Amino acid sequence: LDDPIVTVHQSIGEAKEQFYYEKTVFLRCVANSNPPVRYSWRRGQEVLLQGSDKGVEIYEPFFTQGETKILKLKNLRPQDYANYSCIASVRNVCSIPDKMVSFRLSNKTASPSIKLLVDDPIVVNPGEAITLVCVTTGGEPVPSLTWVRSAGVLPDKTVLNGGTLTIPAITSEDSGTYSCIANNNVGNPAKKSTNIIVRALKKGRFWITPDPYHKDDNIQIGREVKISCQVEAIPSEELTFSWFKNGRPLRSSERMVITQTDPDVSPGTTNLDIIDLKFTDFGTYTCVASLKGGGISDISIDVNISSSTVPPNLTVPQEKSPLVTREGDTIELQCQVTGKPKPIILWSRADKEVAMPDGALQTESYDGILRIVNVSREMTGTYRCQTSQYNGFNVKPREALVQLIVQYPPAVEPAFLELRQGQGRGVTMSCRVLRAYPTRVLSYEWRLGSKLLRTGHFDLQDSTEFTVSSLSRDSYGIYNCNVINEAGAGRCSFLVTGKAYAPEFYYDTYNPLWQNRPRVYSYSLQWTQMNPNAVDRILAYRLGIRQAGQQRWWEQEITVNGNIQKGELITYNLTELIKPEAYEVRLTPITRFGEGDSTIRVIKYSGKDLTSREMWFHCGFEDGNICLFTQDDTDNFDWTKQSTATRDTKYTPNTGPNADRTGSKEGFYMYIETSRPRLEGEKARLVSPVFSVAPKNPYGATNTAYCFSFYYHMYGQHIG
């Protein structure tokens, strides 16, 4: 049962003819719980019930299915200004206590209002300290203030103090929308936001466009050439560009035209058009990007224009395609790029539309090399390298292809399998190849430990078998089948053993515990043997027993005569157990191979003062443990304990009889609630303790007679 929450909402009617004025208030109480919560309302010490006050209405919104309770105060009166309490209860299920929340309603109760003492937006430089201040301007009760960030959590270094948020050293990652939220559970929360912009300049790049009117690939004297520079700037409206030639400032003229591209087409881009290129125009051109607000280092980009400035060319070295490597290695794919200036190279998959190893569809390279670490088999395929327009010529991209072949060792099944078999019997092991590359030369070898048993090659088949026709003591152990290709080996492992499976304890023994002397008790231990015919005949069991909390085991052997059948119940009596101690019991089967798997259980003294094998059982549901009955974990819902004295006259008025069979109203009963949210066909199971009435007494004594009585009551058509 979570803490309940009360929220308040107002509905104010319009004034009519200056003398009629209505103000209605809704108090909503919500709590998460399992089982469903039940609510009650109080005004001061007065319990509010539906119909007890004409000015009060209590109801549930039909769509909430009992999760919400609303208290409606119609046309507020002076007595309605009071302290209201909502009590949430799950009727003491699992001893969960009721929980209460209170709200003071007054003529000053109002929803919150706030204002921000900061600008919007806020533009700052990286590393600066930023403080956001939010103050309340109204609201009763006094609202609480919190800050949230639209992009997720607040930065780790954020300091919060009431309505004040401080970021000591802001970074670009901290930019975004920050909102102050005020809440006092009256009406809707108030929210105001501001946007923090952190200045940044990054990703400076350039490209050269030969005369676009003649579709040239080269720079030619007498033709036009355009140099373009681009950066990413935040905020973009503060971005300015300056152009220089050989270190001297350039201004726009008839032959040197400086422009900026429309931000919607290519943001952060400036262009220098050189009309009618002359020999004297050769040189180093520099564009410098800066932000008007300062505080950020400028980005400077140099572009050399000369007779040696030529477009790029791409080739793949002859020995670099196809490239053969092994899974897990590091490999470098190479494209040789020539030209001046050398452009950025873009790598991508040519054979299918999949991401590159770094997760992007394209990977940039400044030297033409794509380095892949920890190559996997999925990376086999054809890769494309192509020139980018950035840091080079803005011409049709040049491209080349590189083929990558990844070899990997065989994948086989089973990776591990345990085989249990008795001596003198046969066993066959099969190892199957699932996939491998290359597959043309696959060999295998079978080994027992380090001893080589057989070798061979795969032809058309995809599996190999090894058979031991008659197991001996030397035949047991770990058999490995290694399937080998150029890239490595895959291994199937088989543990061939004669160990017997673990026994399985039987927990439904008829009256297993008894005592003949005051200070000690005895216990009838029963078990069955799992797959008794899987290995050699079980000769004996090693029984270990130790007192709970002790280290030392006391052991003895229990001899087995003849073969154990599947499902056969084996019995052994443990005696001289000290009251009221619990004991750990360990049971291990033994064959001529040796010890098998063990199993362990704990035996506990029941706490009953048993003087014989008879057990008297007499109680009523008044007991705290409901007569050792238990709720079934696999059903749909639970039974509820109730009495005439404890039931709620509103919610549980007809759940059971008005008195028990003795006439007492204090007697308890168990009932099931069958109304919503229960559905037809759902089950509630209340399970009694086990009363063994086995017709055959394993000890030869007279059976204990049990008389079991319970009283059934049906109230109306719905509840029993």
From TrEMBL:
Subcellular location: Cell membrane
GO biological process: homophilic cell adhesion via plasma membrane adhesion molecules; synapse organization
Gene3D superfamilies, sorted: 2.60.120.200, Immunoglobulins
Main location: membrane
Gene Ontology CC entries for this record: axon; neuronal cell body; plasma membrane; side of membrane
The entry's keywords: Cell membrane, Glycoprotein, GPI-anchor, Immunoglobulin domain, Lipoprotein, Membrane, Repeat
Pfam families, A to Z: I-set, Ig_3, MAM
InterPro entries registered for this protein in UniProt: Cell_Adh-Cytoskel_Orgn, ConA-like_dom_sf, FN3_dom, FN3_sf, Ig-like_dom, Ig-like_dom_sf, Ig-like_fold, Ig_I-set
Name this protein carries in UniProt: MDGA2 protein
